[in-house]
Specification:
five-stranded mixed sheet, Ubiquitin-like (UB roll), 8 helices, Fumarate Reductase Iron-sulfur Protein, Chain B, domain 2, single chain, 2 domains, alpha+beta, two-stranded antiparallel sheet
């Protein structure tokens, strides 16, 4: 395939960026999207042009690093995948492909297609964990009976990889789906009950401080989420937040 790529180029966080056109030829439909970008960068380097900066790590759909906004969709036109799992067979010969970074106030651009998603880390640090005494007197988790429905729902929430697709696709740049998944995975398990009140209050507070928008129930986040995190988690987090606020 021969393609036209319109890629966002931005030297650093302080300078303005712009869309730059690139032509790429003989793209195999069996290439992954990131492999296609690798080929483009090889060509740019050979011409003495600075390669396009983009984030990636595992390339197995696990880490969420490869967050790109492709033709107006987080992670591109396929569903239930990350960008590294997107293949060029989803495009046609002669297509023009727009490639941009995830755009949100809380995700400032570092360079080109790379954004700073450390806001998610700070939300996690605010309460997305369980404090355990590891002095040697810990109880085996398998010894605690847990309702299967709750266990399944907790594992479903825990599949969130924190890629930020929910933020990028939301018209309000809301992080509610991400935060609710992190709250839900503990709210549904007995191990998470001890710190449940502080957890949801602190994580929601940090989410607001980072500048994420609020949820208006358009549902775009669930559609674009590569792990299919359900909107039910947002409802659960809202209930947890209400209960915690009344306790406080």
């Amino acid at each position: 395939m021969n393609l036209t790529l319109k890629i966002w180029r931005q030297k650093n966080a302080k300078e303005n960026g712009e869309m730059v056109d690139y032509q790429i030829a003989d793209v195999s439909p069996d290439m992954s999207f990131l492999e296609m970008l690798d080929v483009l960068n090889d060509e740019l380097i050979e011409k003495g042009i600075e390669p396009v900066a983009f984030d990636h790590d595992c390339r197995e759909g696990i880490c969420g690093m490869c967050s790109l906004y492709i033709n107006g969709e987080a992670h591109g036109p396929d569903r239930g995948i990350t960008t590294c799992q997107l293949h060029m067979r989803k495009f046609k010969d002669g297509d023009t492909i727009y490639i941009e970074p995830f755009r949100a106030k809380a995700f400032p651009v570092i360079k080109d297609l790379v954004v700073d998603r450390s806001a998610f880390d700070r939300v996690q640090h605010a309460g997305g964990f369980i404090s355990i005494n590891t002095s040697g007197n810990t109880q085996d988790a398998n010894a605690i009976p847990i309702n299967k429905n709750n266990a399944d729902a907790a594992f479903d929430a825990a599949t969130c990889i924190g890629c930020g697709a929910c933020v990028a696709t939301c018209k309000n740049s809301s992080a509610m789906l991400f935060v609710s998944a992190k709250v839900s995975q503990f709210a549904l398990l007995p191990q998470g009950q001890v710190e449940a009140t502080d957890r949801v209050l602190n994580m929601v507070k940090q989410m607001d401080e980072e500048g994420f928008g609020n949820c208006t129930n358009t549902g775009a986040c669930e559609v674009e989420c590569p792990k299919g995190i359900s909107l039910e988690n947002i409802a659960r987090m809202n209930r947890e937040f209400l209960v915690a606020s009344l306790k406080g």
